[in-house]
Amino acid sequence: MRKVLSKHFLILFSFLLFFAVTSFAGPAAPTRAAGGATSVTSASQRGLYLVFPFENAGASPRLDWLGEGLEELTIQRLSAGGEQVYSHNGRLLELERYGLPASARLSRATMLHVAEDLDADFVVYGSFTSDGSTLSIESRVLRVSPASLRPAVREKGSLDSLMDLHTRLVWRMLAENDSAYTLSLADFGKVQRPLRLDAFEHYIRGLLGNEDEARLRELREAARLEPEWPEPDYALGDTYFARKDCNAAIPWFARVPKTHDRYVEAVFATGVCRLLLNQPDRAEEVFTSLQTVLNKPVKTDHQVVNEVSGVDFPEVLNNLAIARARQGKNQPAQAGLRRAADLDPDEDDYAFNLGLLAIRAGDFPAAAGFFREASHRRPDNPEDRSLLIISLEKAGKKDEAEQERNSADEAFGPSGLPVVRWDAAGDSLSRLERIKTEIDMANLRFGIESSESHVSTSGSVSGENSLAHLRRARQELAAGRLDNAEHEYRAALTGDPRNPAAHRGLAEINRRQGKLDDSVKELQTSLQTRDSAVVRTILARVYLEQKKTGQARTEVERALKLAPNYTEAKQLLERLQNSKSAPTKPKGGTP
Q1: How many CB atoms neighbour CB 420 within 10 A?
Q2: Is residue 268 within a helix (H) or strand (E), and if so which, with residue range?
Q3: Total structural domains within the chain
Q4: What CATH number is attached to the domain comprising 360?
Q5: Is the pTM value of this prediction over 0.85?
Q6: CA distance 550 to 540
């Protein structure tokens, strides 16, 4: 099973999501920013921001928390001002893909590469100094394409005035970055949530805490000091959820309002908890309501943005199917899992869960088909292969089972397959169910563009940059609409023929269509523009599908030279090494 966190960026496009959930909540509901203040849509909104921690440039180590604190505060200020911005978690998870620790001090070049991979328009970073009573903050904006560094913006004031000082800093950063920015400092300040400095410090220290108890203590104090501030509520729920303490997590998640940018994740985690507590009826209710939110058309003052409408999230479909299957609703459960499998052809969990459904129904030939599909999707998962062999044996296909066992011995070694057992009634199969514990917010990776700027009188889209096409392409790809996705990727290449993200997207479409040679060519073209451990690992997997083990090994080794700690590359190399070292059984008679 693929590691969820390495796949999922958890990108929170709060501006878009607010419209979705407030439309669900009611027609008159105000749009709120992450901090709880009324959000605005800036007429000059031009791009997507990626914020990095600010560097402690000489201040006391006791103020080290301000590095991540200023990052988080900048994210909240930008979001409240109507800008699109990546979350703190989104940045951390992308660094994980690069094999970089969260505390790494990055060069501007590295920041630029991360931003390019995330299709961000602007990078924000900075530094701060303090003598214990006064605080000086400097912020910089780095435009991604074409690359250019804007002049530094500096503000200085008393340490106690951090909130007001930082509001001025971010407003100046936006106004000086965009001559068309329309909000005055007074108006920008009005949309920001008033926040106690001590509550904010406890919150950031809680996020940075290495031990759960210290983390929970800090977050609870932040929630006590600012009871109407939802950030600590979500963080507390998330911390308890990570500990699988669902009874403690659910009440905190319930305090996250519909207008909050982590609302979808809070509801999703609540549904997961209902499954873990074996409350399938309540889990079904949660995931059904979440589907309603995510599929509701998004309306703005200018137009209806249709990209969200009709787009299913495979993780929601999977968990909803498990909830229904536990209640004996097998037909809708199977339909949901099939849809999830269509949406995410790399993931083996959905085919695996379909196999479990077939076993419960006593249909072992069908179960074998689903487990074979799971094995094709993730050849390095021994549990998929083990269930395939068992299903073939129970279906009376002894020869096929023996062939699969021999193949598994070569791939995983003589003792590489797990022992899987279930009782006659199949009740223990629930322990094998693969519940998705994270939702991929990357499905919301597209921009909201105003109709006046981009739609001509003939109704055709014009004057758009490559980034807008890339975001729509990814949304179409997530929805399984390959033709539409290909059209958008090629439109992006019209304006930027060497765009590595567009070539990578076309490679994925070709791979899904079985055009592996074309997929390899697109990935190689992407690498010619920008070397990437992620792309080299993808290329290695395509080579594996082509049975080109040597070339796969070469690419994954190159990936690890670029990012020595990249988890997926390390796992793939380990699999290749195990495959090479495993003894091969003789085929037929005595050697």
Answers
A1: 13
A2: helix 263-276
A3: 3
A4: 1.25.40.10
A5: no
A6: 9
